[in-house]
Specification:
924 residues, mainly beta, 6-stranded mixed beta sheet, globular
Length: 924
Amino acid sequence: MSTSRIRLGALVLSGLLAATSLTVSAGAAAFAHDGEDHGDEVSATTWANYERVTLTRDVGEPIDLAVMPDSRVLHTTRNGQVRLTDPSQGTTTVVNTIDVYANSEDGLQTIALDPAFEENGWVYLYYAPRTMVSPYPATTPTGSAPNTLPAGADESYWNQWKGYNQLSRFHWNAETNSLDLASEQVIITVEVQRGQCCHVAGDVAFDNDGNVLLATGDNTPASTPGANGYAPNNDRIGYNPGLDSRRGAGNSNDLRGKILRIDVQDDGSYTIPAGNLFAPGTPQTRPEIYVMGVRNPFRIDYDPVTSALTWGDYGPDAGTASDLRGPMGYVEWQSTTKPINGGWPYCHGPNANYNDWDYETLTQGDWFDCDAGPTNTSRHNTGLTQLPAATAPQIWYGDQATHQPWPELGAGGQAPMGGPTYRYDEENASTTKFPEYWSGKTFMAEFSRDRIFAFSQEDPDGEVTKIEDFLPNAALNAAGMPPWDNVIDFEFGPDGSLYVLDYGDGFFRPNPDAGLYRVDYVEGTKGPRVDLDASVTSGQGPLEVDFSAAGSTHPDGLALSFAWDLEGTGTFTDGPAEVSHTYTADGQYTARVRVTDSSGRVSLSSVVITVGNTAPTIEIVTPENGSFADWGDTVAFEVKVTDPEDTTIDCSRVNWSYALGHDNTHAHPLFTGTGCTAEIEMQEEAGHGETENIYAQIGASYTDGGSATAPALSADDVTLLNPRELQAEHADAKGGETTIVDDETARAFRKVTSFDAGDWLAYDPVNLVGITGVEARATGTGSLSLRWGSAEAEPFLTIDVASAGAEWLEASAPLVTVPEGTDRLYVTSTGGVDLDQLEFTTSTSDIRALLGSLDDDGRITHGAAASFGDTLAEADAALAAGDTATAISKLEFIVAKVPSRIRTDAEAAALVIRAAEAVIADLR
């Protein structure tokens, strides 16, 4: 039977200071569909009644959290650390380190408490073990697996990259306040293909019968060759099997891309509860599967009142629908009380279907039938050919408000984090619990948009009837409270407050703006807001440290008093806002300050001081942060590491990674390495469509050797590489009333219009090293100005635009003034110009234009301009003939002759030399 494509694509509806803090005990209109409200909506949506309290900034690279019955919080990092934050003491401690395989998104994922934790003490972890048991290889090769078989290898080559993630549980030792690692019970392993990015998922929830619900990702990279942002179903001979999502998420006999449901026994084994998608004994199926056909259900939750399982699922990156391939990339939020097939990688978003694309011939196949059930034709399939019908999610959305029927969700990157359903408990004595208005509403965090939404449903299997924007950042900023910053996990605690883990900006590193927070409902007076600073946090003893809490404030202006516990003894001594202390003995100390307001409300904050070891520093010297390169270029990578105790730096301790950033919301790690220097190719993933905002990111870290009396310390750095073509619609920030509209003639199918005087676009970071000119692709009549560091700064470059009609014009200008270093680049307009893109160029044409500009300004002689122009013509002729060596020699001739031919203006001479050397470097 032939199935047609469901045409639901681009829907247009109109057509590091590690600090720990604690506080002890203007409303925005909600957008709504039809639905019933309950409780006091006015008070519940008066955002001044909420307080977002910093519990700790010491979270490493945060991944997941679990709130304990006493409101202490366990939280994990990707590199295997388990931290315990004690709000009552204002402290955070690394209590365990799990030995994990760390590559791309692999590592330590979820931490969850057993529903009967207070009786049995079980804590669940989902992680990638570094060492494995037979029949898998003992360890995984370092680095990344190739996309295709190496010359002379056969299919068995891929076996070395096979591995698994495992769900284990450990007993919590209340005396040591840590996990008893010897008590580990391995519950279930999920086979994966290692050495590639991404989609691990790994969240855990429990249903009303105590069954474990485990989310797994499809273990298929967005960079699958030929996917171009659509379904990655590449099963070509000789290609990595990890490039085919049908082998996992679309396979009824595989545990990847699923939500599993199992009944764990006392010995750690499990049985299959009744009611899963496939009954035990069904051929070519796994009975553990409750939900199949999901891509990366990173956060799941379960509501015991309605028995609803909810999750957010990430989608692919195609920015537009394709008549050849299928729908644009959506993300999803889903709720179900029964087992279902989510449809991936055959159906997506509003059950819009892909087709069985032939990756070998690049031709269209039959469209998958979402309603009757798609068929799995992959050569990697070990399960059923005919799959269950796909169930569309309740919510699906793209990167523009016009891409879905819910404009409340807004625009921007897409990264849904499933969250908890709040249940109001009248008997809970907590004074900070959320009000009854929110009871029964399910929360979802939008990681990339820094927003929290609350969804209402009359039927957990039915539509969402109301969407509310909970505690928007505008209200938090206005109140002087820390805003949402890439929420990666959140859950309600036993006190009815909302505990939130923020990942911060940046990827695969401990971000300085990451943190653990608690949101309390507090009508009236709030607590003090502590600002703790230490002059130094590590060094050799005796170590004198100056502490200051003088920046602490109170939202109601109440008087503050201070008390200090500088060696972590548990005893506080009253003192001023600023104190000094000298540490004589080696070790680590948690220095704390207690700030009390005149009404008796208390806040605490702490910082860890290390004596006997000094933290190293690491700096990525090249490439410079914010610089430009072409996709496919090889860039020189170099780091500088300093460490007072390590007289000789061991470069094998330097770990670096290359990732492809996307929309400033997430990054796909492509490969890793070690060493202080390397040659790194600026690779572009094939999995992103032409509309996507992508860039390169290189991160580096160094961990020193520590000492016998003090632990090892680490440092990291990150640099971003911009592609030479920056799309106008991909600006990192904008001011004024500019509008992004679709345009099929634009390079990425969108452009910026209504770009009037006073409006601005900003790109950050930008470094113009090696750039000799800028070309704008624009229409209209007017001027574009580039400004450095501020929209009000004097322009350092102006491009005049004068195009006839609606035809695109490439207008350019050379760099005559060159801003130094890395900063934010602002683009302004006189009005009358629509902008498609800016291209940052390095060319002989720019040198020629620079000479002309300097000649016109009288800074060089006509003779010098003409002579160098002739040499440039010879260089261009050589390039046209493919003779790069001759072209470089001509440019080197210019560099050599500038001092004798441009003698009266040293700055002009330096500009010409800089431009010529930049082109030489680019050619090489």
